[in-house]
Amino acid sequence: MPSPRNKTLHITPEDAPELAALCAVPEGPLDEAAVENRVLCGDFFDLAPRMAEGLFDLVVADPPYNLTKDFGGEAFKKTDADSYEAFTERWVTEVRRLMKPGASLYVCCDWESSLIVGSVLQRHFTVRNRITWQREKGRGAKRNWKNAMEDIWFCTLGDGYRFHLDAVKVRKKVLAPYRENGEAKDWQETADGRYRLTCPSNFWDDITVPFWSMAENTAHPTQKPEKLYAKLVLASSDENDLILDPFGGSGTAAAVAKKLGRRFTVVEKNRQYCVWALDRLRRAETDKTVQGMKDGVFLPRNEY
Ligand SMILES: C[S@@+](CC[C@H](N)C(=O)[O-])C[C@H]1O[C@@H](n2cnc3c(N)ncnc32)[C@H](O)[C@@H]1O
Fold first, then answer.
1. At 114, phi and psi to the nearest 5?
2. What CATH number is given to the structural domain containing 231?
3. Which pLDDT tens digit goes with each residue over 65-93?
4. Residue 155 pairs with which residues in a beta bridge?
5. Which residue has the least CA distance to atom 14 on ligand 1?
6. How far is the CA of 247 from the centre of ligand 1 (A)?
């Protein structure tokens, strides 16, 4: 019997046929009107060629890593480096065609896939940074170091990209509360203590993986935290922009886009996951909270 505090989403397409019906892919060309604010149940390699060129302002991609992993009954099998490179080259080429000239792309990967993903991205984009996320949770290894980090590559098509620094500042406890003429220097006294808003670095240690007592949690095996995607979306898009997630999983990108006033297109080939995404979107109509974010500021790890 799961704990009453366990909020993990398990809903099936049979439980919610009205949601399952919503993820059907429309007939004909997939122009802006056909894809905006949609979760499309299909294979990205089939749907991308049907989509109009230059549709998206931002792409957040979390492709299967080069690991054997069961995604709802369909396994992605670990393969050799050349085959994973060919897979990456194929989806990156499709994504590039779908991006507007000023658009940005973020790609998630583990350290091993990252060796390949980074070099493919360099062939197509200006690679601006590699964020390291200390996800921490993960299986211990007996003959190796435990895998506790992931990479997120930040790429743009050119120099005309957006980066909203003020929207992604990080709240940090002040250890040395300097004063100037008796006034606090760059920090604020709040009911919770003394804090400073700092520029975010490319090392992110303030985000946990979703766990069972969090409202955003689903049974997806590799779900990303909403707090992580909120940073990407706020830094690299404006309100009403159209965001693509080509490997949508449980719909984290869609839920975050909706909560933050952006439009979205999610492609996911597993129907069960599409239904989870649509259920999260239904809840996001009234609940705009992103756990770990308060009053537009990102809180330290495990602070809500
Ligand atoms: C790493 S997971 C994404 C998890 C997602 N970011 C989330 O927060 O839930 C990758 C997803 O891509 C889906 N997928 C794999 N190949 C696909 C393809 N060719 N087209 C569409 N979806 C695909 C898998 O079913 C899986 O759910």
1. -60, -30
2. 3.40.50.150
3. 998 889 888 889 999 999 999 999 999 99
4. 105, 127
5. 247
6. 4
What is the reported pTM? 0.94
How is residue 212 annotated by DSSP?
T
For residue 101, being part of any structural domain is answered with yes
Q: Over 90: is that where the pLDDT of 130 sits?
A: yes
CB of 41 within 8 A of CB of 268? yes
Does ligand 1 come within 6 angstroms of the Cβ of 44? yes
Classify residue 171: in a domain, yes or no.
Answer: no
Which range of residues forms the domain containing residue 34?
A: 17-160+200-298
Q: Is the CB of 273 under 6 A from ligand 1?
A: yes
CA of 300 to the centre of ligand 1 (A): 28
Output the CA 248–ligand 1 centroid distance in Å.
Answer: 5
Ligand 1 centroid to Cα of residue 87, in Å, is: 14
Q: Is the pLDDT of residue 139 over 80?
A: no
> How far, in Å, from the CA of 68 to the mean position of ligand 1?
13
User: What CA–CA distances, in Å, run from 119 to 109, 232, 253, 268?
Assistant: 13, 21, 25, 25
Confirm whether 166 is domain-assigned.
no
Using CA atoms, how far apart are residues 17 and 12, in angstroms rounded to an integer? 9
CB of 64 within 6 A of ligand 1: the answer is yes
pLDDT in tens, 20-68: 888 999 999 999 999 999 999 999 999 999 999 999 999 999 999 998 8
| Largest separation between any pair of C-alpha atoms in the chain | 68
Number of domains composing the chain: 1
Q: In testing the pocket of ligand 1, which one of 268, 272, 278 has its CB within 8 Å of the most ligand atoms?
A: 268
